[in-house]
Amino acid sequence: MTGRRHDSTRRTAWARAGLAGTAALAIGAATLIGGADTGAAEGRGHTGLERDTRALRDTGATAVVSATSDAAGRVQRARAGVTDLDDPQPLAYDSYYRVGSDAKTFTAAVVLQLVGEGRLSLGDTVERWLPGVVTGNGNDGSRVTVRDLLQHTSGITNYTDVLYADPEDLTPEAYLADRFRGLTPREQVALAMSRAPGWLPTPGQTRWAYSNTNYVLAGMIIEEATGNPWAQEIHERIIGPLGLRHTLTPGTSAYVPEPTATAYLQFPGHDELIDTTLMVDGGADGGVISTAEDMTAFHRALMDGTLLGPGELAELRRTVPAPGFSAVPGTRYGLGIAWRPARGCPDGLWFHGGTSFGTASEGAVTDDGRAAVAAGIYTLSFADQQAQEARNAAARRLTDRALCGAR
User: Fold this and answer.
1) What is the pLDDT of residue 46?
2) Minimal CA–CA distance to 210: which of 340, 354, 98, 12?
3) In this predicted model, what pLDDT tens digit does every residue of 170-210 receive, in sequence order?
4) Which fold has domain 2-404?
5) Are 56 and 398 contacting, i.e. CB atoms less than 8 angstroms apart?
6) Hey, is 130 helix, strand or coil?
7) What residues have CB less than 8 Å from 392, skipping those under 6 apart?
8) Which of 30, 32, 131, 141 has its CB 3.0 to 4.6 Å from that of 387, i.e. a possible disulfide?
């Protein structure tokens, strides 16, 4: 691995979802995109969701699609912006987008189902399932449990921090050269193993740091426990049973199905928006494509007990402090999903969020799974932190108003 790492780092720096995987990342560019047909939610005229979707667009995103759904079957959808800057058409309400690290919640749900079936335990070590994989430079798979992986308490280095360690790799030219290439899960883990861990876990410790490597390993464990590819388990346990007809795992494909919108990225040191729609983006840490309506259905089924038994759902809800995961004080991380306080929702909201090159996924679900909201944003900026924070705030307003009536 060492002999080809310099080469492969540059060739694959764009290949994976969950680049920085938290809801606190940027979800728009610094330029204002206006004048688009926003449409009407479910044909009933302007709604609060449409207002907040337009407001998110007005912070600089080229396109935003959103949806809410509840246990009574009521659905609202909204859209704002254009499908492409060179061919500005209104985007479809059911537009596909990459959900980035929202895929981690799917992976955690599958692991918890396997726990419920007695096929593995949250206390199992990584070494038990993947002998010799987490080792070297002070890494020790016998000290890391499945729970540590799902809760980000493992201390294992984030492999994307190794991929993106050199800012010179974050260029439009590198993206164009690398967009059809990807690393295997074992190559991703090997990158993480080239660095010492932040710490070695001890029983009951709650030290926390976000690492995409945790979910790459979780996906590998799913495959060892079932004998099936991660994508097959996601489909047969979640996508198929819930009827998520617009959710898929792209694997090594670089394409997003139609209808969709162009994904735009503002690279560091650049003012212009670059089309980053095409990229290899598949894996247990970030490889899911979906729609806003399907994402609301998934999150409601997760939290209302449809997907998990009572014991497994209780484990998912066991949280630890997650400093830096969200701009909201008091945010805590469970197993593949986070909790934060929200004004107007006494029980708070559950959420994750994710980014891919040029797109972002945002959303939230009520504690009882009664209602959920999701949004796909087709513009991402690395160049303007102030603009990023504005996008984050607009996304939180959208989710909080949709679910909690907050103003």
Assistant:
1) 58
2) 354
3) 899 999 999 999 999 999 999 999 999 999 999 989 999 99
4) Beta-lactamase (3.40.710)
5) yes
6) coil
7) 23, 24, 25, 26, 27, 327
8) 30
Domain boundaries, the chain: 2-404
Residue whose token pair is 């790492």: 5
At 181, give phi and psi (nearest 5°).
-115, 155
Q: Which residues of 86-115 are buried (b: 16+ CB within 10 A; e: fewer)?
A: eeeebbbbbbbbbbbbbbbbbbbbbbbbbb
Q: For residue 167, what pLDDT band results from cuts at 50, 70 and 90?
A: confident
d(CA 299, CA 105): 9
- Cα dihedral sign, 35-36-37-39: negative
Query: What sign does the CA torsion over 52, 58, 59, 63 have?
Result: positive
Q: Return the H-helix or E-strand segment holding 175.
A: helix 172-178
Q: Please give the backbone phi and psi of residue 118, each rounded to the nearest 5 degrees, phi first.
A: 75, 15
- Please determine, for residue 8, whether its predicted confidence score (pLDDT) is greater than 60: no
Measured distance CA(269)–CA(53) in Å, rounded: 28
Taken in order 84, 296, 307, 113, the sign of the CA dihedral is positive
d(CA 346, CA 334) in angstroms, rounded, equals 18
